[in-house]
Design brief:
Number of helices: 4
Radius of gyration: 13 Å
Protein name: GIY-YIG domain-containing protein
Order of helices and strands: EEHHEHH
Low-confidence stretches: none
Family: Belongs to the UPF0213 family.
InterPro entries: GIY-YIG_endonuc (IPR000305), GIY-YIG_endonuc_sf (IPR035901), UPF0213_domain (IPR050190)
Largest sheet: 3 strands, antiparallel
Pfam families: GIY-YIG (PF01541)
CATH topology: GIY-YIG endonuclease
């Protein structure tokens, strides 16, 4: 299971999600880009800036909830540990 963080090009929003297939989920976010009924579509959040593995769904969901409860500054500090330039992470080369 993956816990991941997306942002938009302006870095104005952070979206935190959980999935068992990160490539598939990123694709789904990208094809929904611009769909105003979806958070990632409304804010064009489709840049993967952070992800981590969790051993199972229960722990992934718990970690997602934990991260969602953090301040913006704490989330930014976490992203900076893996990706200080906030560049889009290409899973093919990761």
């Amino acid at each position: 299971m993956y816990v991941y963080i997306l942002t938009n090009t302006g870095r104005t929003v952070l979206y935190i999600g959980v999935t068992n297939d990160l490539n598939r989920r990123l694709y789904e976010h990208r094809i929904g880009n611009g769909d105003a009924s979806k958070f990632t579509g409304r804010y064009q959040a489709d840049l993967l800036v952070y992800f981590e593995l969790a051993p199972d769904a229960t722990q992934a969901i718990a970690r997602e909830k934990q991260l969602k409860g953090w301040t913006r500054a704490k989330k930014e500090a976490l992203i900076n540990t893996l990706n200080p330039d906030w560049t889009n992470i290409d899973l093919e080369t990761w």
